[in-house]
Design goal:
Layout: H1 4-32, H2 36-44, H3 51-58, H4 62-74, E1 78-82, E2 90-94, H5 96-110, H6 120-136
Antiparallel strand pairs: 1-2
Helix pairs in contact: 1-2, 3-4
Length: 137
């Protein structure tokens, strides 16, 4: 059982990292003429998924994800297509321009990332620790 002091320090550090990462996403979004939520959506659209799946990945309500998707669709970055196995759902699919903008977003997010000062093995260890903690929650 962690001590109260360690627990408090870890919470403070995780919160600080989250703010730092959020600021990084905001800077990338500004340079791309997108909102931070749009950049996060592009980052998460690695394959065709439903709006509900995207909302889960973005850690937001489905209605918020739908709003973001509507704006990206208006920009010609994605389309909604019938889901191959669920008649009630639509799959979100990036257009050629959407794939280009996603690649640009991923590159910009990787450039000067707050995690970039860590070695690859340290990044993996951090990911694994956070994954373990998220699984406990």
């Amino acid at each position: 059982m962690p001590s109260e002091e360690i627990d408090r320090d870890v919470c403070k550090l995780v919160h600080g990292l989250a703010r730092t990462l959020d600021g990084h996403v905001r800077r990338v979004a500004d340079t791309m003429g997108l909102t931070p939520s749009q950049v996060v959506a592009l980052r998460e659209l690695s394959e065709p998924i439903t709006a509900r799946e995207l909302a889960t990945r973005m850690a937001c309500e489905a209605s918020n994800a739908t709003f973001v998707l509507d704006r990206l669709e208006e920009r010609g970055l994605l389309g909604r297509h019938p889901h191959p196995t669920d008649r009630r759902a639509k799959q979100i699919v990036l257009t050629a321009e959407g794939n280009r903008r996603r690649a640009e977003a991923l590159k910009r997010l990787g450039d000067s990332s707050p995690l970039g000062s860590l070695r690859a093995d340290q990044q993996e260890a951090l990911r694994d620790l956070l994954r373990a903690l998220a699984a406990d929650g």
